[in-house]
Automatic annotation (TrEMBL):
This is HD domain-containing protein. It comes from the Bacteria. Pfam families: HD (PF01966). It comes from Desulfosporosinus lacus DSM 15449. Residues 32-133 form the HD domain.
């Protein structure tokens, strides 16, 4: 089994919440696509995108609802998924004997993947972009509309459209986001 599949297999039990078993393969696909045209190290980017949300497994559905979304967000609860995610990711990377220097960079990316708005490296830029691109897919859109029933399709589309320029670091991701929006609208 290749190393990324091995990491994904170990991560899967921690991804069975908040539809992360759907989010992660989709964002991993985006990361691979972005890596074709943007500068980055797949050995950092791919494990980071696989593992970045494992910490949600430590929060109940109730806690998760307060910890993300376009409305009022409980920053402490959101931070909790980053802190718990670091602990789990460190353990899983050790379990597969991952290169320690790369593991350190992966952990640094996971540690503040939501709370830090800037990117610390080319690799972080790609992880952040691949993570957010999920929101523009049909799976990401439906997931959001199911969780936040008071938000309409039109409102969510307008919000996503308004975020393309400020959310994405790479031109490749911006292009992919606009393409997804076109498909959702169609
Ligand atoms: Fe994510």
């Amino acid at each position: 089994m290749n190393i990324y599949d091995h990491i994904y297999r170990l991560a899967l039990p921690y991804l069975l919440t908040r539809s992360n078993e759907i989010h992660i393969p989709i964002s991993k696909g985006f990361a691979k696509t972005i890596l074709l045209t943007e500068q980055g190290d797949p050995e950092v980017v791919i494990p980071a995108i696989i593992l970045h949300d494992v910490g949600w497994s430590a929060l109940t559905d109730e806690m998760q609802l307060q910890a993300f979304g376009a409305g009022v967000v409980d920053k402490d609860l959101n931070r909790m998924h980053e802190v718990e995610g670091v602990k789990i990711a460190e353990r899983l990377l050790e379990e597969v004997n991952y290169n320690s220097q790369k593991a350190l960079e992966i952990i640094n990316i996971i540690d503040k993947h939501d709370s830090r708005l800037s990117a610390i490296s080319d690799n972080d830029r790609i992880v952040k972009d691949a993570d957010k691109l999920y929101r523009f897919t049909s799976e990401g859109l439906i997931f959001y509309l199911d969780w936040f029933e008071d938000v309409s399709f039109e409102e969510r589309m307008a919000w996503l459209t308004s975020k393309v320029d400020s959310w994405f670091f790479t031109e490749t991701a911006k292009t992919l986001a606009l393409k997804e929006l076109e498909e959702r609208q169609a």
